[in-house]
Specification:
This protein is an all-alpha fold. It has one domain. The chain is globular, with a radius of gyration of 20 Å.
Length: 240
């Protein structure tokens, strides 16, 4: 009896804590990305291409800047997110890596948190490139609007990363996973994308963050819903 209790205590000590488990998963993705650079590189290239084409197509001078720049910025970030999610989960599908991750002594919710945190970091790097480039191509003062746009991105991006990680897991085993991911993600992302576009438009029009409380609350609510949903539902979606 004492021996059994001792074995249980040793096993409990051997298992990492929940934050440590999430960190292990995120660290794995970051280590792979540092070696390959494929997710950030391809996502950044695609997002930059969208911004450049959007500026050539829609920018007609200072009069159109406020209306066209926010849409181009968030369209580029959204499509880059779908590309990043698809590639990140393709890695897990190759050579049974996802199955190995699921049989490891890790909580399903910790796996989700680690994957979502890694994707959040990747998207943050994309935004660090996209927003300054948009400031140059759409001729708005980055020193005046950069902090406000960064605040909007800080509230919008966690929800995008959480929903991408959740539904990336759901579609990873389907043949048409890229198409299914886009079909599932875009309608669900529409509330936070509309709020992000509207908030960015008002910022470029001279509004302060204090005047954008409703948009910020909507994005924050979206973040809470998808992070909570992912932590609860991830195990169900990844079980065979």
């Amino acid at each position: 009896m004492a021996l059994a209790e001792a074995e249980k205590k040793v096993a409990a000590r051997a298992l990492p804590t929940w934050p440590r488990q999430a960190w292990v998963v995120m660290h794995k993705d970051l280590a792979i990305e540092l070696n390959t650079g494929e997710v950030v590189t391809t996502s950044c290239f695609f997002a930059l291409l969208v911004v450049i084409l959007g500026s050539l197509a829609f920018y007609g001078g200072p009069a159109t800047r406020r209306l066209s720049a926010p849409g181009v910025i968030w369209i580029s970030i959204t499509f880059a997110a779908v590309l990043a999610v698809g590639r990140a989960w393709q890695r897990e599908r190759e050579e049974g890596a996802l199955d190995a991750l699921l049989v490891a002594p890790l909580s399903r919710s910790a796996i989700f948190a680690g994957k979502a945190a890694g994707l959040l970091l990747f998207l943050g790097l994309v935004e660090l490139v996209v927003i300054p480039l948009a400031a140059v191509l759409f001729a708005f003062d980055f020193s005046a609007f950069g902090m406000g746009l960064a605040a909007v991105a800080a509230l919008a991006t966690p929800g995008i990363a959480a929903s991408g990680s959740l539904f990336g897991a759901m579609t990873v085993r389907t043949r048409a996973r890229d198409l299914m991911l886009a079909i599932v993600m875009f309608p669900l992302l529409s509330p936070t994308l509309l709020a992000a576009v509207a908030a960015s438009r008002e910022l470029l029009g001279g509004a302060t963050l204090g005047e954008l409380t409703d948009y910020l609350k909507l994005m924050g609510l979206f973040d809470v819903v998808f992070w909570a949903g992912g932590l609860v539902l991830y195990g169900i979606l990844t079980d065979d």
